[in-house]
Amino acid sequence: MALQNIGAANSDDAFYRYKMPRMITKIEGRGNGIKTNVVNMVDIAKALARPASYTTKYFGCELGAQSKFDEKTGTSHVNGAHDTAKLAGLLENFIKKYVQCYGCGNPETEIIITKNQMIQLKCAACGFVSDVDMRDKLTTFIIKNPPEVKKGSKDKKAMRRAEKERLKEGELADEEQKKVKKEVKKKGSSSSKDGTKSTSSKKKASGSDEDRTSPTHSQIDEKEEALDEDDDDDVQWQTDTSLDAARQRIQEQLSAVTADMVMLSTDEPEKKKEASNGNDGSQNGNSMHCRTLVGEVKANLKKGVGANELLSQLAAHPVPAQEKMSALVEALFEGTEKGFAKEADKKKNYFSVAVADEGSQPLLLHAIEEFSCKSTSNALKEVALVLKALYDADVLEEEHIVQWYQKGLKGDNKNSRIWKNAQPFIDWLQNAESETEEE
């Protein structure tokens, strides 16, 4: 099947990754019953991520002819005999209005119908929300026949949010009833405060680990220089044959032997360190490369570089994808002491572009795990809030979050505090899932 780039502006780009099949039409019938059959309309609609009924109806609206798409057989008919080139031009107009993002031109958009019966296009690449011109005839058909919502996305979230509101209302009613028992409530609050203080003091006592500095070679080098200076000072250019001179030479020889023994003892750890440095050279190189990546991302953020441009520059580096994602998370969150969830919500556009490719969500979760587990980071306390903020922003999906959590509990660092802190959000996800299934 011959393919072409989506969008006329991208027709000359040989490396454009969004493609669709070329249109194939067939004239059927005679006289007043003549029709144009778009043979591969289903394949074209799949490539555009739009229902085939939308494109068929658009042809009818623009040509002023009756059009019909049969869901059972998958056939698309437009009354009258129409050229393939003419229909392809109309399809191009449909792509510009209802498929491509008005901001970046990317065709990876989703149709959203607002509460005010307005149609918008939400771009998965840059996060831009485009407003569709409601004067077009097809908009009434789209509102009457909205696109199907993907499983596990907005319906579940809407039900969970409504349930959360109901719980809040119940809590308010309970508080009004508890006003009568103020004394009991005060005692309970005072005891709970004492408990939280004791637990916080325990956390502070157990969670402070100072960074240890690794030993350097400077001390060994200083010892070697001191020994070399001693050897140079002990050299004598005249031989004395007296008894005292002989005894002095014997002592010097003994001191020289002990000096050689000291040199041998210092050479052994030197060799061991060189061998260990040879084994850890790649790790040090990777850490240095990661630091340079973090610095470059921070510099671009200060310049006000957009999400798409920033991620394209980051993708050009010849390093593993996990290191790129870790550098992005560290650069976006570095310097944040409190309010990591709010910071994640502010910078959700960068994360949405970063997980645009399939399989990138586990990389983002692992990067958040690495950053949160650092001793200098306070994000460990707010990891559940960060996950919820990215989940509400449609950056992370429930399936990937649960898989990451279950894999972490079985991994080497299963005793890490991150799993304990993330557990309330995981429980909320699973409980909400079970309750929606029961309903």
UniProtKB/TrEMBL annotation:
It holds the Pfam family W2. Residues 147-235, 267-288 are annotated as: Disordered. Residues 189-199, 276-287 have a biased composition (Low complexity). Keywords: GTP-binding, Initiation factor, Nucleotide-binding, Protein biosynthesis. One of its GO terms (cellular component) is cytosol. Residues 179-188 have a biased composition (Basic residues). InterPro entries: ARM-type_fold, IF2/IF5, Transl_init_fac_IF2/IF5_dom, Transl_init_fac_IF2/IF5_N, Transl_init_fac_IF2/IF5_Zn-bd, W2_domain. Residues 147-178 have a biased composition (Basic and acidic residues). One of its GO terms (molecular function) is eukaryotic initiation factor eIF2 binding. One of its GO terms (biological process) is formation of cytoplasmic translation initiation complex. Residues 280-439 form the W2 domain. Residues 222-235 have a biased composition (Acidic residues). Catalyzes the hydrolysis of GTP bound to the 40S ribosomal initiation complex (40S.mRNA.Met-tRNA[F].eIF-2.GTP) with the subsequent joining of a 60S ribosomal subunit resulting in the release of eIF-2 and the guanine nucleotide. The subsequent joining of a 60S ribosomal subunit results in the formation of a functional 80S initiation complex (80S.mRNA.Met-tRNA[F]). Belongs to the eIF-2-beta/eIF-5 family. This is W2 domain-containing protein. It comes from Glycine max.
